[in-house]
């Protein structure tokens, strides 16, 4: 998690801990060497289990995360990462697809950089993100956020006002928000939300998604659900007030 030392704002980078997660060993070693040349304390891991393990026992100020670790698309596991750390996450990717970059940013990534990129630019971006994270505006009392109350089956805006959702709309939100960033297909959604088997011609879930998006969007929560072609829908999180 981001440390408390205000000295980091003065670019005293020697205490900044950076976790580099990349299965391209040669590239990762080069990046780690570059980061250390600039005075940052860099640690490298090459797979997802190692990432989770090191985060359980160590604190990092920022994470440089490759989008692809073998068959794992790390964007889809950002929620899992967030349960262990609130450090800014900067994605590195050789993927040119705009949709992936948008999804990563919507999921809460601090940045999404395309390979190849120089170590010098990465250092500059690390400094910029830490300046923002450690600025007085970010260090003040946390602002109210959206809240899903499963017990009450209600969705509350940051100002405490409830969003009027039908029972089916809340069930849809509950299912999708339980696995942020991970797509859930229409078959599963139909069974869990509507308690019936899915039929190919059934558009009930699509209509529910539309209504839920509309209500949350009108309340200022942003587009919290994204469609993922052939994979269903995924929850990307609420847009909280600045």
How would you describe what is shown here?
- The protein is an alpha/beta fold and 242 residues long.
- Helix content is 38%, strand content 18%.
- It has 9 helices and 12 strands.
- A 5-stranded parallel β-sheet has the order 2-1-3-6-7, with helices on both faces. It has a 3-stranded antiparallel β-sheet with strand order 8-9-10, with no helix packed on it.
- The longest helix is centred in the middle third of the chain and has 16 residues, at 119-134.
- Residues 1-12 have low confidence and may be disordered.
Looking at this protein, list some descriptive labels.
18% strand, 242 residues, single chain, 5-stranded parallel β-sheet, elongated, Rossmann fold, alpha/beta, Arc Repressor Mutant, subunit A, disordered N terminus, 12 strands, 3-stranded antiparallel β-sheet
- What can be said about the biggest beta sheet? 5 strands, parallel
Terminal Cα span: 21 Å
How many domain regions? Answer: 2
Strand order of the biggest β-sheet: 2-1-3-6-7
The count of strands amounts to 12
CATH topology of the largest domain: Rossmann fold
Give the DSSP E fraction (strand runs of 2 or more residues).
15-25%
State mean pLDDT (0 to 100 scale): 84
Report the structural category: alpha/beta
CATH top level of the largest domain?
Answer: Alpha Beta
Shape: elongated
Q: CATH homologous superfamily name of the largest domain?
A: Response regulator
Judging by the overall fold, what is the CATH architecture of the largest domain?
3-Layer(aba) Sandwich
